[in-house]
Amino acid sequence: MHVRIRDGVILDLLPTKKFKTIGIKVDFVAPLQATAITARALLAQVLETSTAEYPTQTALARQLSRLYGASFGISVVKLGTKHVIRLTCSVVDEQYLAQYQDTMPLFERGMALLKAVLFAPLLPNGNFDPTTFTQQRQNLLTAIKSLDDDKQYLANRRLQELLFTGQPAQAMSALGDVTTLGELTANDILATYHEMLAHDAVHVAVIGNVSEKRVTTALAAWPLAERLEPTTEPYYRWTARSQVQAGDDEAPVVQAKLNLAYQLPIYRSDADFLPAVVFNAAFGGTPLSLLFTNVREKASLAYYASSDYNPFTGALTVQTGIQAQNQERVIAIVTEQLQALQAGKLSTELLAEVKASLLNARLASLDSPQRQLTGALNSGLTHLQEPLTHWQEKLAQVTVADVQRVAQQVSLQATYCLHGKETGDANETRV
What we know:
By secondary structure, the protein is an alpha+beta fold. Helices cover 45% and strands 21% of the residues. The chain is globular and about 65 Å long.
């Protein structure tokens, strides 16, 4: 159920009696700007920890406990050309609580908590609390730095920097960068906060046994003014380079991380979107895939080998864990698998298997309230509302020729290898 609350404020209600909880998601969606990513990430950190009524994390945690263990969190997400500050809350449907006696239902109490977080933050003397600000800035700094401890994440980030050279908004982590973070002040975050409330598109999604009237009544108490409707599409469109970007770095790793990036200029609203999803599943997106079978199992050259497709950026990435001396052989086998699909060499058996895998994954998502809430934003941004039965029919119709047509649009753009020091001499190009 799609409801327009006011200009720029949209509600997607997913009524169901399937779950014993009610899930709430509130997305503040802004154009993706490199200069704003870090400030928005820090704002999310600060808002998550306190309100005027609950001025400490402990006080906020106690309130969640009083709400029968309600969950609450704020995160940031990059989605194509959009940056999202996401608030989530999940409360028990009190009909399953035999001893519940409060006059206000838990859904309304959860919405009241989100209202307090958004519209009544801890602002002594008209600005964010200095102690909270300093602590959360340090926490975000630690979080950004700790990400690099995950060497696969680090390799992926370095690959993105190669792929989107000159496009910092696309290359940057959703958490921002440490240089900008160190320069931010409480005044900067206050300005970011007011900008978010005044101008961000707002997408609310609720799933559970709750009526439209209850949701709209709760939202009516939120002081959300009308704002301009988003006019730009969420897709980041870019021109492929004629020359492959290559890079490598040394790190204390036993297992080298070899990642490859391709352009796949098919986006979520395109007619070939579903064939592109099937292509990725056959290429490296499932344990049945050609990469898994040929690079990992047959050649035994990789500890893992998989691919990911982003329909908001038109990027396809391959991730492998290898011995660094096998880098050229692995690239050759990966290339062979892509060329096979480009030549239409996809068995009807494998096609049927990956389709079944995609269908099972789609059906499994129906058992996840959070995945359904996230899917609601994707549908809202793309203006694509597709019933499950329609999707199933389209999936069944995807042919080998469709997959081949998609594969022929794939072009290698960047390679990156993170390896141990002892193999560094074997890699010539550095970034």
